[in-house]
Amino acid sequence: MALPKVVDHDERRRLIAEAVRRIAADRGLEAVSLGEVAAEAGISKGLVQHYFATKDEMLRYATSTLRTQVERRMTTGGPALRELLVALLPMEETARTDALVANAFVTRAMKDPEIGARFRDGYEELRKVVAGLVVAEQDAARVDAALDPEPEADLLLALVSGLGDAVLLGQRSPGQAEALIDRQLARLAPR
């Protein structure tokens, strides 16, 4: 007698979320539908509906997996301030895809309270990490001790956000964006 197939439900949800992210990065959220996701994931529409009754449920889950991917990229090797800021830029294909997906979700985050809360919470966590790295740089005498770490974290994240968009649009090369980060960090050094 054959044993029943063991299904990894979390893996199936991740497979669906990856399909959502690929579609969002390539064609935007307006192209995401249960049928398009099923085709992209290579599974039936019924199976997608088994896990996500609505497009909204599917999109909300996809945002949680996007955050996990970004966090994984940022924490590789316990980055210092500069390395973290550079890791946030769309310098290579995975980071570029993540940035395109995040940008696709921004408008949705303004209209969907759950996705909006997820984006705000993620930003606050990132802001705390960057502020902590500014403090570490101050302790190492590489950043002026008189600077307030929290506003500096906000400014650095705003810089990276703008540079990320400029790289995506082709207005700046990854090298130019990295040079601008270095320039800003040099401005934070003790005088």
Automatic annotation (TrEMBL):
InterPro entries in alphabetical order: BetI_C (IPR039538), Homeodomain-like_sf (IPR009057), HTH-type_TetR-like_transc_reg (IPR050109), HTH_TetR (IPR001647), Tet_transcr_reg_TetR-rel_C_sf (IPR036271)
Top-level lineage group: Bacteria
Signal sequence, renumbered to the chain: none
GO-annotated molecular function: DNA-binding transcription factor activity; transcription cis-regulatory region binding
Keywords (A to Z) from UniProt: DNA-binding, Repressor, Transcription, Transcription regulation
One Pfam family named in its UniProt record: TetR_C_6
TM ranges: none
Keyword Lyase: no
Name assigned to this protein: AcrR family transcriptional regulator
Organism whose genome encodes this protein: Prauserella isguenensis
